[in-house]
# Entry
Amino acid sequence: MEHVCGSELPFWEPNLTLYTDLPDLPECFQMSALPWAPCIYLWAISPFYILYLKRNNRGYIMMSTLNRIKTALGLILWIVCWTDLFSAFHEMNEGQPKPPIYFVTPLIVGMTMLLVTFLIQFERLRGVQSSGVLFIFWTISVLCAIVPFRSKIMQANQGEVKDKLRFTTFYIYFGLTLIELILSCFNEKPPLFSSVVTDPNACPETTAGFLSRMTFWWFTGLAIKGYKSPLESKDLWSLNKQDSSELVVPSLLNEWEVEKSKAHSEPNVKELATFIKAGTGAETNHVGDNPEEAEVLLSKRKESQQPSFLWALLRAFGPYFLIGSAFKLLQDLVTFVNPQLLRMLIGFTKQPNVPVWWGYALAFLMFGTSLLQTLILHQHFQYCFVTGMRLRTGIIGAIYRKSLVITNEAKRSSTVGEVVNLMSVDAQRFMDLTTFLNMLWSAPLQIILALFFLWQNLGPSVLAGVAVMVLLIPFNAFIAMKTRTYQVEQMKHKDDRIKLMNEILNGIKVLKLYAWEISFKEKILQIRQKELNVLRKTAYLGALSTMAWTSAPFLVALTTFAVYVSVDERNILDAEKAFVSLSLFNILRFPLNMLPQVISSIVQASVSLKRIQDFLSHKELDPESVDRRNNASEYAVSVVNGKFSWAKQDHVTLENINVMVPQGSLLAVVGHVGCGKTSLVSALLGEMEKLEGEVSIRGSVAYVPQQAWIQNATLRDNILFGKPYMEKKYRCVLEACSLTPDLEVLPGGDQTEIGEKGINLSGGQRQRVSLARALYSEADVYLLDDPLSAVDAHVAKHIFDHVIGPEGVLQGKTRILVTHGITFLPQVDNILVMVDGRISEMGSYQDLLKQNGAFAEFLRNYSLEDIIEDDEVTLSVVDEEEDFPEDALSNHVDMVDNEPAVNEARRQFMRQISIMSNDPENPKNKSIRLRRCSVKKLAEPQAEKEQKVEKLIQTETAETGKVKFKVYWEYAKAVGPLLSLFICFLYGCQSAAAIGANFWLSEWTNDAQHNRTQEFVQMRVGVYAALGISQGILVMFSSFTLALGKIQAARKLHQTLLDNKFHTPQSFFDTTPIGRIINRFSKDIYVIDEVLPSTVLMFLGTFFASLSTMIVIICSTPIFALVIGPLACIYIFVQRFYVATSRQLKRLESVSRSPIYSHFSETITGTSVIRAYGRNSAFVLMSNMKVDDNQKSYFPGIVSNRWLGVRIEFIGNCIVLFAALFAVIGKDKLNPGLVGLSVSYALQVTMSLNWMVRMTSDLESNIVAVERVKEYSETPTEAPWVVEDKQPPPDWPSQGNVELVDYSVRYREGLDLVLRNLSLKVKGGEKIGIVGRTGAGKSSMTLCLFRLLEAAEGEIVIDEVKISEIGLHDLRSKLTIIPQEPVLFSGTLRMNLDPFEKYSDDEVWKALELSHLKKFVSNQAAKLNLECAEGGENLSVGQRQLVCLARALLRKTRILILDEATAAVDLETDDLIQSTIRTQFDDCTVFTIAHRLNTIMDYTRVLVLDKGQIAEFDTPTKLIGQKGIFFGMAKDAGLA
# Structure
């Protein structure tokens, strides 16, 4: 420096600077180092900054006054600097040569000011509202200028201002930089046209200034709002554009596509083989024409590698994440400054005569570095969390999009539950991992640095401590590995439990009707027990590892100090060495704990990664398998040589399929149950694997599945399905699907919200809504999979006439109708007969009859020829007066040659005619079809209907306000009150032991000053060890007791929830979406099992740690007590603000989370419908919205943690400052040991204060799980299952008499009565048919017998026993029902028939034989142990119905109830069922709710219900004679 400053200006003078009470810096230093520092910083950073600005353009900011002033000041500063420069040249000319420094410094500073001016403008053009780079520059400049500022004033005071010009220019310079610094705290206006301007509730982060961003000040507004009143979703800011699904998901998917194309660029063998096969025909060969080449390729046998999802993630989210990593690196380096300052501080207290300002300087330096560390750390966290959030958005989006296109084979390998788990659990794991990922490199770095400083401090003895740490690593790793395996096991149990729970809730009605709850409850509890056993093991391991990491720093310190004093007599442990080492060991503790955790969470994430990658690599449906191009051919649908299976390796389901459907024709597909009719429709939709052949469909498709798929939305939305609403067309559609009368019944008309899976619509209504959706979509090709089976006969006829048939709304469209109803066949253009996956014949009705093949055979059983002799299919023959049925029958008898089966034939025939029921409105002139829309009904659209739409599904309530103390008490009660107290006591003891050990250490170090070191070494080490080890043991004890407590609580809470849910009345399940109940069983129980206990553990730990810090500091410097008050006030103040806001944000987040998953599971069940209508992108958008909504409440949640962190750590830093200041003030009275003790404790306090608030809040948010589980454990229950003193005799009901006395019932409190004052008597063995229009209360009546609905008034008496007095199981197990919708549970077929294993195998086989399933079951390899898929998906609907029949046959009770059991079954199977019921249950009382009147024409009596009252009740013949309602219905059905 001498060359620059010249010889008479020295660069550094210790006497002038350090050893004086009025320190000052030498002039050369002031002129060189100080002004250069900011310049070097700015020139170093600006290239990167300019590059960054070039990449990120946020728009253009208009020139503002602020901007003009900044620019002007920058230019003035440049002029000021160069004034100095020119004056130096001037002096040189005058012959007073100056040293080079007078030229260099002004030049450098001047150039820098130009750069600054350029940056100010460049930032404006790039839309930067507040510049961090320049703010830091101005701050450094002002700080560096303060020293010359002070010394120039000191010089002036002594009256020696030699250089007046430079004196003046410096003060101008100082003033201007200060103004620039103040100005740079203000913000520019947002860029033109940015989202901030347009968005009413934009996130303030985008417009926040640099300081505000560093301290998260921009969040304060929301914190205050949240403190004043609980936040609602409308208060939340919109999501930042770059965090939203529309940007995040595509970027991830693009990277994933790149990965996939990389992986597939090495072709797979199997694919090659198929290419070669395909290449023989018209297409060019993919491999090349010469066969040798293909051979070579095949011989290489290269298996294609799997595309790596990890790389896709890294490329999509890596760059942003790296910024966070850079902050982490800075923070790691700053961490190590404080121990060095502590060393100096202790040294300072030892030395008697040093200037006091050293101490103050050290105290403030400690404060400064801590502050810097805080700000940097939280920036790092912010970047990591936002990356995590984007990761989750990306992964959920990718999974959702994938689930819309995976093949059925892939769908089979992962159930809905598993895929939802991918979304919730696995995506969450990634999110959690990102926060710690940087520890992978940061931990080793911190460890190396800490060891380096320790070595300097204690020399080789450190190795002893390190050895202990290294030994603990395998111990921790072993624990982590074991925990990992347990976790996998527990995940599996949890998956099983949730899957089973899901099925139970889906089939809860059936469980109640069959009284099977106990068996299924046992199954759940078995799984739960396994789950708890695994949890217990994990908890014990956890207790061990907690002990390891609490005792680790202590053990390390102990071994190090013991070795250090024993190795060499001359080694004296003094305060400096001991406490600096302790603070370094404390720094070491964090990375050492984190490493195993990070590694185990990386292992977890890698498992998740594999699961997600496997799912995303599943085969997708080939969009080309069905040719959807609009090529002009007269055939709308054609299949040539089609061969299809459900999965590549399955056996072929359909083979040699050749179908040509002409444009605008109606094709009916008929055949027995399970012959492949539905599969054919699926093949046309492209849902099956096409093994060979061509499929093409012209134009758009509408599809009505066999089991209607209804969304949880309003009825209107279900029909519109994303199409715009057009009043006239919409009314037409409703009319045609005869939904108009239903709308009058529904509480909110077409605005009624429909529950999940269409729970509040009857089966027929659901099917009609599904049909209306198809009709409204105005497609070219209609695929209708048996839409008529679920509706009443006259409705079916109405729909056929008005919609499907030759005169219906759809005439001129191409329709493919799968049907069981023979009635309609004469009116279709072509009929296709399926037998065992092949097409046995196809042609028009007449042709098929002439061919005399399978179809004719099929029809001959259902003799129809006579009726449809004339070719006018309009059925205009039948007129009221004509005595038609008699006539036809006599013909019929002749034809059958008086076979004894006449009776049978007569019944068949009756049935045939009954199905041909007519238009209810207009029985006379049937030939005049009601075309398109009936005009009269359109006149008055429903205007009045819109008043109040009843919400069926109650919105999920988010609790608001503070969590009540009662909830904590509930949890403490579940743990056990005494145990809870004991746990707290143990924690207190362990803290006491820790404090004791450290006080002992400070006493030990004071020995050094009094030179009594040698005598006491053994004792000092011994006591220190004893105190420390007892602390470890106490820690272990407290963890063990906590583990016991948590398992107990988990068991109790789950048990009560489960008990309650099985005892909850049916109405609850109808009004609560299943997802919400499942959420209690999965998410909330998971929180109680795993999250809550660890939160409690952390909370107790941090609370006692903070407490002990305060105690220690007050003991050493009592004056500190004065500061505690104000700091505690600020602490509590911040904490209240934070907890109020963050708790509510957590709640909003969890409430907005379930819609993501319920929408998702809804989508998965309806993929085929969504795809058929081509609505993929709309559903993807819906999913995006739901995810964004959730992230909208998650993002402020992250920021609230940062906001809190910065404020709490500021308090912690103040504690450090005051501890150091008071140590400096009381220097004479304190010994170095105490100073070391109190300051090193203060340095740790920040961490525990921060965690304490975080844990308080986590505790509040997680205890909410207890609250939610409690809420659902206390819902009102139904009557007891068994009433001890009222148990009916074991053989009850022996006769089967049923009597209703003045019986009324309503669905729920506050709704109208569904049945009003019914009174009737039924004798044992009578067969009663129940008929009536939809909504007349037919099904309600059966529910009453089972007491799924409790009486509003009146009684039901069965064999002299009032059913309201006995237990529900006693009642339900004595009745049998064959329900409308066959429900099967996943498990063996045997379990589905007989869950309690009451019956022998022979009995089960007998039941199967009678229900005509024996052939099917005995053909299966597993026989009775045939695994049924979730919901019985692997059996056809008809087969499921037969399984329900088999259940009824096994139970064989005196009273049987049939609920429209014949809906989804073809006529033959229907006959089988009817005859089985007639023969097997002929001595039982049978109630049948009938759609097809012919099934009940030979019943003892028929009950006609109308609007919930008995309209008629007598024998069928008498009722027909009475000419009442029944007569009308029978006439419509052609039976009267």
User: Anything to note?
Assistant: Residues 269-303, 863-950 have pLDDT under 50 and may be disordered.
